[in-house]
């Protein structure tokens, strides 16, 4: 098949760039579930930002730590509105500018400033280590926040002798409609998506908060059947701390994240030879002799159970446990019938009289 992700379902938790990410995944054949975990909103009251700006003008920073592109642009646009753009640009132009990642670098350059250093990992910890090693005692550091305070960064710099001016530009807020996020939680918990993408660490935290008392169920899914795709190492940190293996590109880019998923998901498939056919299991479909066969959740669940024990006979009671609660043994028979019809290869699944079903292995 030419569409590498055909038959797979991918959840997207991004808000601001969700359409771009979804389009890239759909172009490769994936079914996409959009579920923004957070949204970025400008500060409703810009008093704190104005005070931080005036503090920078009163005590010109020796170091500017630019964390995000949207934050730097928002700060400079706000200063323009207050008539402070030129004096702010003048003091920042004399600073040692550290840009945490490519987006922040782009915003710095677009403003006519020049970055002096950027971490390879795009990690705040690496930035702090670099500044402390360089020496910050007695210096003023303007720390452009990304969504929320970073007390660990501020405290480390203060402990090294710096004065830190925190510059708040925007904040994270829950999605305007939380229903898609809760639906994604259901899909992850039920292993009905193959991957979930994250473009920020707060989005990963938000998904787990939305899971509530099912957090451990969601984490178990992400530790096994559901791939966690993160745009970079910083985004991955909340999941790694909880023992979730993540897949992340070496460069934090949306396109690179999609390529990582394209490389990883097909490797996780199961392929069997049964009933004279080559059958590969994907998220919501089977590929039979190279042809995609979409399947409903119940037939797909039966096929997965049979493929996990190739050649073994599974009883109706065993298969019943793979179906949604409330199903009965008649539902198993219906799921098997729909599976055979959906595969268009009736010999793949064999009925063993009075015992159950198995894959007819070649």
Q: What CATH architecture of the largest domain would you give?
A: 3-Layer(aba) Sandwich
Number of strands: 17
Radius of gyration: 26 Å
Give the CATH topology of the largest domain.
Rossmann fold
Could you say which overall geometry the principal axes of the C-alpha atoms support?
Answer: elongated
In whole angstroms, the N-to-C terminal distance is 23 Å
Largest sheet: 5 strands, parallel
Record the strand order, biggest sheet.
2-1-9-10-11
* Tally of separate domains: 3
Strand content: 15-25%
Structural class per helix/strand content? alpha/beta
CATH class of the largest domain: Alpha Beta
Specify the helix fraction band.
40-55%
What does the secondary structure layout of this molecule look like, with pairings?
Layout: E1 9-12, H1 18-27, E2 31-34, E3 39-42, H2 47-58, E4 63-66, H3 69-82, H4 85-93, E5 96-99, H5 102-110, H6 124-134, E6 140-144, H7 151-159, E7 163-167, E8 170-173, H8 179-189, E9 195-198, H9 201-211, H10 215-223, E10 227-230, H11 233-241, E11 246-247, H12 254-264, E12 270-274, E13 277-281, E14 285-288, E15 291-294, H13 297-308, H14 316-320, H15 329-343, E16 349-352, E17 356-359
Parallel strand pairs: 1-2, 1-9, 4-5, 4-6, 6-7, 9-10, 10-11
Antiparallel strand pairs: 3-8, 12-13, 13-14, 14-15, 16-17
Helix pairs in contact: 3-4, 3-5, 8-9, 9-11, 13-15
């Amino acid at each position: 098949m030419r569409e590498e992700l055909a038959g797979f379902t991918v959840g997207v938790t991004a808000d601001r760039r969700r359409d771009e990410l979804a389009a890239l995944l759909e172009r490769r054949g994936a079914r996409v579930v959009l579920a923004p975990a957070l949204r970025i909103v400008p500060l409703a009251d810009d008093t704190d930002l104005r005070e931080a700006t005036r503090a920078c003008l009163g005590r010109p920073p020796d170091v500017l730590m630019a964390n995000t592109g949207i934050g730097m642009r928002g700060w400079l646009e706000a200063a323009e509105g207050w008539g402070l753009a030129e004096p702010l640009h003048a003091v920042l132009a004399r600073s040692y500018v550290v840009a945490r990642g490519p987006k922040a670098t782009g915003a710095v350059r677009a403003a006519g400033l020049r970055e002096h250093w950027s971490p390879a990992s795009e990690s705040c910890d690496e930035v702090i280590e670099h500044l402390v090693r360089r020496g910050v005692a007695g210096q003023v550091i303007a720390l452009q926040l990304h969504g929320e305070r970073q007390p660990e960064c501020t405290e480390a710099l203060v402990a090294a002798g710096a004065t830190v001016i925190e510059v708040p530009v925007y904040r994270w807020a829950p999605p305007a409609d939380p229903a898609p996020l809760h639906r994604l939680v259901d899909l992850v918990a039920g292993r009905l998506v193959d991957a979930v993408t994250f473009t920020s660490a707060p989005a990963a935290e938000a998904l787990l908060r939305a899971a509530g008392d099912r957090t451990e169920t969601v984490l178990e899914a992400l530790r096994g059947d559901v791939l966690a795709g993160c745009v970079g190492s910083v985004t991955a940190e909340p999941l790694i701390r909880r023992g979730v293996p993540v897949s992340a590109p070496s460069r934090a880019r949306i396109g690179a994240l999609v390529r990582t998923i394209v490389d990883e998901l097909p490797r996780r498939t199961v392929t069997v030879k049964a009933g004279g056919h080559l059958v590969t299991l994907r998220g919501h479909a089977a590929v039979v002799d190279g042809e995609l066969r979409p399947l409903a959740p119940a037939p797909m669940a039966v096929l997965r159970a049979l493929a996990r024990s190739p050649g073994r006979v599974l009883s109706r009671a065993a298969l019943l446990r793979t179906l949604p609660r409330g199903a009965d043994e008649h539902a198993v028979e219906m799921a098997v019938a729909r599976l055979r019809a959906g595969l268009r290869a009736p010999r793949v699944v064999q009925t063993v009289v009075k015992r159950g079903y198995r894959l007819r292995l070649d």
